[in-house]
Design goal:
185 residues, alpha+beta, five-stranded antiparallel beta sheet, 6 helices
Length: 185
């Protein structure tokens, strides 16, 4: 019987060691797969959610082009105007738009307030709110990050928005634009 017992004991030891070996191999494979998934997630996550490029809050107001009712000299002083000189402000909802980009997904989140010439324009803006939002969205989505990341670029976009909106208005005009939030990501 001692021969049978030794063969059985050897068989159990071989099974135990092969089971341990299989468990170790499976554990190592699971760790490799999980590690690869974490690395892939981090690399892909950076492309989808890059660090913010530019953040500005409460930018100086934007002046209208020379065709507006005030002179160019007044518009140059718009950034240094007193708060009491600022007209009625009409806040718009936040705009979150995709920017025109070849290098990946970039977006702009901007909140805009319009400076109005008179109170009567406020009612017209209420009636035309969807059209105004559409025009602003079209303007913003046509820009690249390079076009709007500089101060001059923001000024150009603001002038374009003012000109576009003033062409639609019949009860007054928009004196300027204030960006209360401007985040590019």
């Amino acid at each position: 019987m001692s021969g049978k017992e030794t063969k059985e004991e050897i068989g159990h030891e071989v099974k135990k060691s092969s089971n341990k070996l299989m468990i170790i191999i499976i554990a190592v494979l699971v760790l490799i797969i999980v590690g690869g998934a974490v690395v892939a997630f981090l690399l892909m996550g950076e492309e989808e959610h890059p660090a913010p490029v530019a953040v500005e809050h409460v930018a100086p107001p934007v002046e209208q082009k020379a065709a507006s009712s005030r002179s160019r000299e007044d518009s140059d002083d718009m950034g240094s105007r007193k708060l009491s000189d600022i007209g009625i402000l009409y806040p718009l909802d936040t705009f979150t738009v995709n920017l025109k980009s070849d290098a990946g997904r970039r977006y702009l989140k901007a909140t805009i307030s319009l400076e109005l010439n008179g109170q009567e324009l406020s009612m017209e803006l209420d009636k035309k709110a969807p059209v105004i939002r559409d025009r602003i969205i079209r303007i913003l989505t046509s820009k690249t990050i390079e076009e709007i990341s500089s101060k001059k670029g923001k000024q150009k976009v603001s002038d374009q928005i003012v000109d576009t909106l003033n062409a639609m208005m019949s009860d007054g005009s928009i004196k300027g634009i204030y960006f209360t939030e401007f985040v590019i990501q």
